[in-house]
Design brief:
Elements (H helix, E strand, L loop, with lengths): L1 E4 L2 E4 L4 E7 L6 E9 L6 E6 L5 E3 L7 E6 L4 E6 L8 E9 L2 E4 L3 E6 L1
Parallel strand pairs: 2-11
Antiparallel strand pairs: 1-3, 3-8, 4-5, 4-9, 5-6, 7-8, 9-10, 9-11
């Protein structure tokens, strides 16, 4: 089970830090990532990170968002800075365990102008 936290309402230019923890007896987690879905839009990739720490970002997030993980805690983080109203969306984390991609329930991020 993946449980996200850290979403909320923030003014434009502000910051938020999302967390996603995998619980239960699980095999080692391979890649982890964050996706988001805004109203009326398709889900899009925000950032991914391998178990070794290699990262990949969507172009619009580069320089503003930072993904990291703590393998000992089975947790992935997303530090979001310089937030914009267009960053408003439900943010979902995922984790690749063996051959299955698991998803969290999502956490709402709302950026006011």
């Amino acid at each position: 089970q993946l449980v996200e936290s850290g979403g909320g309402l923030v003014q434009a230019g502000g910051s938020l830090r999302l967390s996603c923890a995998a619980s239960g007896s699980i095999a080692p987690i391979n890649a982890m990532g964050w996706y988001r879905q805004a109203p009326g839009k398709q889900r899009e990739m925000v950032a991914t990170i391998t178990r070794a720490g290699n990262t990949n970002y969507a172009n619009s997030m580069k320089g503003r968002f930072t993904i990291s993980r703590d393998n000992a805690k089975n947790t992935v983080y997303l530090q979001m800075n310089s937030l914009k109203p267009e960053d408003t969306a439900v943010y979902y984390c995922n984790a690749d365990i063996l051959t299955i991609r698991h998803w969290g329930q999502g956490t709402q991020v709302t950026v006011s102008s």
